[in-house]
């Protein structure tokens, strides 16, 4: 039985409903990783027209994918308490309206990115939409506990978009950025799944905690986190696009991440620990992306060179 919430009667209310369909909090994290890739590919001196255009079209493309996800999942969103107030299950936006909105966003993203930047980055944005909609939402989400692992490739595409926007190609370093997000995704989403396991069980979505239990999920989170730390350092060597500042931040952030995951591993049924891992995983990715930007910032390079020269003089 559909629960109908009060209709939105104002223009701003309607705008808010459509914004809610795009899941803006998820998009923000995607834009941060895109910015990090643009910053690295441009060696700390990005073309602002390329950066801003890519962020705008990335917002539209991700918003399109998220809207289609909301459209496809409206049946289970109607059942879960935490999602019943979303615009489609609440009856504030009709499915046809949502689909039209998603199509407009996808077409606009491709057109503007192709015109202002390049076709490769535009095609990659569309690849992100297709992977999220077809591979994750349609194929894997309701059929496999590995849905997040494979479907997580969609969230790892934005750094490829950022790199391609600057260089017009995809180097090995771009794929390392992809790998970082790809490996980060399971610990992030499985921690969330541990928090809301009952919701997923209620609607028959086979998230790993539902199928395998909390203990095995915590083990998998630990394994992926252990893999994430050395993967993040590949940007230092052999890629060489970042230096000591990023390496220090990556090791520090990774160490804190690992500490929190070990706590969860010791008490996998403790929801507060799962929530701590989930929240920190967001902070980790944001600060890691910031570390990339700071490391490539020309002024930061000047400071580092001065410090190195002073250290050499002191110890010499």
TrEMBL record:
Example GO biological process: heme O biosynthetic process
EC number, as in UniProt: 2.5.1.141
A GO MF label: protoheme IX farnesyltransferase activity
Record flagged with keyword rRNA processing: no
Pfam families registered for this protein in UniProt: UbiA
Similarity annotation: Belongs to the UbiA prenyltransferase family. Protoheme IX farnesyltransferase subfamily.
Keyword set includes RNA-binding: no
Functional note: Converts heme B (protoheme IX) to heme O by substitution of the vinyl group on carbon 2 of heme B porphyrin ring with a hydroxyethyl farnesyl side group.
Protein name: Protoheme IX farnesyltransferase
Record's catalysed reaction(s): heme b + (2E,6E)-farnesyl diphosphate + H2O = Fe(II)-heme o + diphosphate
């Amino acid at each position: 039985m559909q629960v109908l919430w009060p209709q939105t009667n104002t223009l701003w209310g309607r705008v808010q409903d459509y914004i809610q369909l795009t899941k803006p909090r998820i998009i923000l994290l995607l834009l941060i990783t895109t910015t990090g890739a643009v910053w690295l590919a441009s060696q700390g001196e990005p073309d602002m027209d390329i950066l801003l255009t890519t962020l705008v079209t990335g917002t539209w493309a991700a918003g399109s994918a998220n809207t289609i996800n909301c459209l496809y999942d409206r049946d289970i969103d109607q059942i879960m308490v935490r999602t019943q107030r979303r615009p489609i299950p609440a009856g504030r936006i009709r499915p046809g309206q949502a689909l039209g909105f998603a199509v407009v966003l996808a077409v606009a993203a491709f057109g503007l990115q192709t015109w202002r930047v390049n076709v490769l980055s535009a095609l990659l944005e569309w690849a992100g939409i297709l992977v999220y909609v077809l591979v994750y939402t349609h194929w894997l989400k309701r059929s496999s506990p590995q849905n997040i692992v494979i479907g997580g490739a969609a969230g790892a595409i934005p750094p490829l978009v950022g790199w391609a926007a600057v260089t017009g190609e995809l180097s090995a370093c771009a794929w390392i950025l992809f790998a970082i997000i790809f490996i980060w995704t399971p610990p992030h989403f499985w921690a969330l799944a541990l928090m809301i396991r009952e919701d997923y069980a209620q609607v028959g979505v086979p998230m790993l905690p539902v199928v395998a239990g909390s203990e095995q999920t915590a083990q998998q989170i630990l394994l992926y986190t252990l893999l994430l730390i050395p993967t993040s350092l590949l940007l230092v060597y052999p890629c060489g696009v970042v230096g000591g500042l990023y390496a220090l931040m990556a090791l520090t952030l990774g160490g804190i991440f690992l500490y929190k995951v070990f706590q969860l591993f010791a008490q996998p049924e403790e929801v507060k620990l799962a929530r701590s891992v989930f929240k920190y995983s967001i902070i980790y990715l944001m600060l890691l992306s910031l570390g990339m930007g700071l490391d490539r910032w020309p002024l930061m390079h000047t400071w580092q060179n001065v410090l190195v020269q002073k250290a050499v003089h002191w110890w010499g």
